[in-house]
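Support request from a user on the community tier.

User writes: "When I paste my structure tokens into the form, the page sometimes reloads and wipes my input. The last time it worked, I copied everything first. Here is what I submitted, just in case something in the input itself triggers the reload:"
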């Protein structure tokens, strides 16, 4: 027997002759063909695999003893034929394949040297591998997503603004207040002004309105120097209690709605709701100087354009030539802070530059960033580190959902504008530094926001359709009116004003003579707009009630069947209800004001 075949049995793979005995923990040489050791045949010599020595007394012999003929025996085994063993059998060996017939072709359907497999077996194995791989991918993807969201959640800072925030859901129209905090903390930021300002003010503020159908959005800039009254602000304290921060006794600058006397972003939200005549603010986002630097860098710079060069050596240090530039970091912040060398060097001129910058950034995010995972991660990481938000959107998952809603809007339907203002008449003409709301145009803008009316031309066709419908409905108001005493109506409160239905009933009965009216308490659900539902034979009553309450034609909903003689109409007060006796008007015509559209490049003057 040569060295190559020593210790080898026919049809046994050499690698399988060494078998681990689970009872002893040692490897044993098995030369027989069966899976178990026969007790009727002489026991083969036990050996140790190369490089391993057993704990027995003799080399190559397992623990136990050798019989007189040199065969190894084990404890409990006699070593003689017919002897019994108390040891568990060693696991069976794998049998070697039989060789192919000499000189003949391989068996049909088999490759030489490969075992035959059924098609069903192969399919089952493929399915097992595919299913297993898919499970691994899904688990790995979910784990990565969880880790990613956890990372971004750890970046975010949140503020509980209590009831200052409206409906936190992402359904219906959305109003998001974007607050630019002028806090000077951060490297190099102390050069932009009062370095002792440790809380900041509402320096740059935009009311970002997103339409209910997600076809358009409007960002309305609110000047920092706008003179307004700040309302009392219930504010959450670190210990969980609520403290009411007193409002301003007289008119003051808008930027003091945050940071002064402990006012939080919720106070800025309440201030905007008050000055807009009741626009509900759903959420807020606050960014500071550092956010401008990091976000502009994350998108590889923001494209801007100048109609003339700017070299402000004294304040912002901005030095840009005429034409287009791509700016980021410190230069981007200087661009947004600069107001010298522009028009009247006022905050209103600076707002135009800020709108141009934001419009350009939105274009780049949609056109250059969303398709790049690397850029997208950088922007998401920078944004979550830079943002302070209300608790309603205080997680990466909620912000992602909000981003998806905003992503539905076409660039050409996003517009920027400044709320219409006029110079403050209470200041000397040669020293006017503040502004007040334009008494005619500002309310029109706010009414359009409240009634979800688009400012962009792309919506013009849809708006014309709405106007045509309104004109058709206006015909409902043409005709006879019933007497107030003959008007029958049930009033439901679908607004956010507590007791609105009862106050309306009291006003109708005591002041208008509509004695056949009743309070039906809260409506089944909240409504955005007030509606009056009536039967065709109640049209004269509907016209009279519309006159009394100042209801627009769009609020009237006529049914198809006549009502009984004593059956009342149904009036549901909506979010547009301002109070008993206060007319509810329809959308105002868009005022003639300057706008910046996100899909167009406009050079700063």
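"...and here is what came back when it finally went through:"
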């Amino acid at each position: 027997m040569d060295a190559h075949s020593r210790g080898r049995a026919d049809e046994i793979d050499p690698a399988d002759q060494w078998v681990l005995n689970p009872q002893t923990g040692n490897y044993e040489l098995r030369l027989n063909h069966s899976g178990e050791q026969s007790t009727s045949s002489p026991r083969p010599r036990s050996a140790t695999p190369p490089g391993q020595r057993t704990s027995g007394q003799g080399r190559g012999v397992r623990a136990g003893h050798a019989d007189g003929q040199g065969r190894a025996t084990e404890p409990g085994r006699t070593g003689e034929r017919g002897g019994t063993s108390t040891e568990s059998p060693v696991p069976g060996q794998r049998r070697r394949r039989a060789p192919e017939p000499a000189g003949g072709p391989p068996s049909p359907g088999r490759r030489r040297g490969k075992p035959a497999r059924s098609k069903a077996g192969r399919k089952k194995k493929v399915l097992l591998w595919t299913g297993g791989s898919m499970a691994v991918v899904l688990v790995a993807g979910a784990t990565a997503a969880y880790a990613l969201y956890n990372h971004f959640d750890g970046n975010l800072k949140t503020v509980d603004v209590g009831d200052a925030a409206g409906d936190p859901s992402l359904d219906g129209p959305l109003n998001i207040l974007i607050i630019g905090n002028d806090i000077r903390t951060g490297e190099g930021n102390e050069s932009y002004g009062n370095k002792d300002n440790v809380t900041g003010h509402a320096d740059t503020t935009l009311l970002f309105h997103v339409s209910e159908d997600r076809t358009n959005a409007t960002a309305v800039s609110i000047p920092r120097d706008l003179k307004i009254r700040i309302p009392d602000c219930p504010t959450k304290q670190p210990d969980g209690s609520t403290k009411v921060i007193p409002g301003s006794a007289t008119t003051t600058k808008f930027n003091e709605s945050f940071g002064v006397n402990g006012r939080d972003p919720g106070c800025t939200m309440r201030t905007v709701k008050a000055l807009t005549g009741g626009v509900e603010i759903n959420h807020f986002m606050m960014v500071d100087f550092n956010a401008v630097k990091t976000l502009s860098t994350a998108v590889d710079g923001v494209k801007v354009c100048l109609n003339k060069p700017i070299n402000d050596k004294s304040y912002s240090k901005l030095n840009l030539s005429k034409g287009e530039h791509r700016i980021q970091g410190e230069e981007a912040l200087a661009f947004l802070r600069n107001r010298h060398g522009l028009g009247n060097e006022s905050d209103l001129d600076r707002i135009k530059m800020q709108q141009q910058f934001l419009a350009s950034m939105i274009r780049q995010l949609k056109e250059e960033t969303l398709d790049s995972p690397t850029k997208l991660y950088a922007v998401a990481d920078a944004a979550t580190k830079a943002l302070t938000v209300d608790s309603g959107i205080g997680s990466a998952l909620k912000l992602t959902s909000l981003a998806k809603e905003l992503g539905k809007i076409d660039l050409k339907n996003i517009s920027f504008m400044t709320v219409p203002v006029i110079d403050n008449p209470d200041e000397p003409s040669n020293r006017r530094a503040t502004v007040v709301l334009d008494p005619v145009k500002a309310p029109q803008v706010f009414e359009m926001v409240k009634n979800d009316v688009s400012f962009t031309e792309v919506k013009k066709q849809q708006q014309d359709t709405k106007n045509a419908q309104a004109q058709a409905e206006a015909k409902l108001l043409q005709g006879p009116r019933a007497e107030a005493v003959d008007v029958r109506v049930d009033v439901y409160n679908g607004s956010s004003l507590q007791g609105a239905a009862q106050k309306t009933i009291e006003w109708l009965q005591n002041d208008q003579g509509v004695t056949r009216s009743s309070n039906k308490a809260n409506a089944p659900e909240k409504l955005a707009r007030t509606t009056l539902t009536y039967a065709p034979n109640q049209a004269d009553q509907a016209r009279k009630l519309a006159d009394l309450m100042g209801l627009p034609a769009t609020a009237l909903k006529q049914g198809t069947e006549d009502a009984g003689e004593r059956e009342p109409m149904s009036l549901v007060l909506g979010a547009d209800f301002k109070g008993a006796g206060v007319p509810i008007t329809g959308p105002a015509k868009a005022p003639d004001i300057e706008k910046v559209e996100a899909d167009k490049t406009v050079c700063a003057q």
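Agent notes: The reload is a front-end session timeout and is unrelated to the input. The domain at 157-455 is CATH 3.40.630.190 (Aminopeptidase). The radius of gyration is 41 Å. Escalated to web team.
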